[in-house]
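From the shared-data thread, chain only:
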Amino acid sequence: MSASVKVMTPELREWIVAQAVAGQPPQAMVESMVRSGWNEDVALVSLQKVLSDHLAAEAAQAEQASLPPAVPVPEP
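Structure, as tokens:
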């Protein structure tokens, strides 16, 4: 018996984020991944990881955008 190993590609990451932004429920994305050969538990964990990473990156970008530009300050 051979095990099928699925790889989280950049394209799959982009698809997951695009589906989430479009309002697709997580279960629909997991079901789609399962139909393409993913184990359901692995698909769920992968989905959570991708979305968590995406939200963290979005938060970091928003924080960076809200900061004023750096300026030199005099030494005391």
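The mean pLDDT is 90.
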